[in-house]
Write a structure and sequence with these properties.
Length: about 180
């Protein structure tokens, strides 16, 4: 997935931050399907978090770098018919619609971001995604003139039917490094 991010974004390098597997039997709230619109991080922390990831990979952060954080999202075992990933189209998300909040999951007090409701937000999702498809979303980006966030959630699809297989998905979280 790091190679994919480099290839698609033009980054000079990419490093994994982690991954998360979601199934119909979560071990806790954090592993369940997200049912609230959120951003995974806050751009106010992008340098601190990016430098920590680079150091974890024995890479010294440079002075002439900017960072973008990406998620990949992919179903496995079954198509994602119910509980698909939905996200706000960045073109309909004014910067003023995103607020800071503190998320306290997994015994961490993390500054993250979330959008406030705006009826002008346009929502997207890919129906019936198969295990050979992947969505890439940008979770935060410090480069000027680019979308900063991609707020997202999952939802119970009323068209899924009672016999729809459970959604199982894996998310990877990746830091991309760009030269200024």
């Amino acid at each position: 997935m790091c190679d994919l991010i480099v290839r698609l974004t033009g980054a000079t390098a990419a490093y994994p931050y982690g991954h998360l597997v979601r199934t119909e039997t979560p071990t806790d709230f954090n592993d369940g399907y997200a049912r609230f619109v959120h951003c995974d991080y806050n751009v106010k922390r992008i340098e601190e978090m990016s430098h920590a990831v680079l150091r974890n990979h024995n890479v010294k952060p440079g002075n002439n770098e900017q960072y973008g954080w990406y998620n990949t999202w992919q179903p496995f075992d079954n198509p994602a018919i119910n509980n698909p990933l939905a996200f706000i189209d960045a073109g309909s998300l004014p910067e003023a619609d995103v607020i800071d909040y503190f998320y306290t999951g997994r015994n961490r007090d993390s500054l993250v971001a979330a959008p406030v409701y705006n009826p002008a937000h346009r929502w997207c999702y890919f129906p019936n995604m198969t295990p050979d498809e992947v969505i890439i979303t940008k979770q935060m980006d410090q480069r000027p003139g680019r979308a900063v966030y991609c707020p997202h959630t999952s939802f119970e699809n009323p068209l899924a039917g009672e016999d729809a297989p459970p959604r199982r998905s894996i998310e990877t979280r990746i830091v991309a490094v760009f030269s200024k």
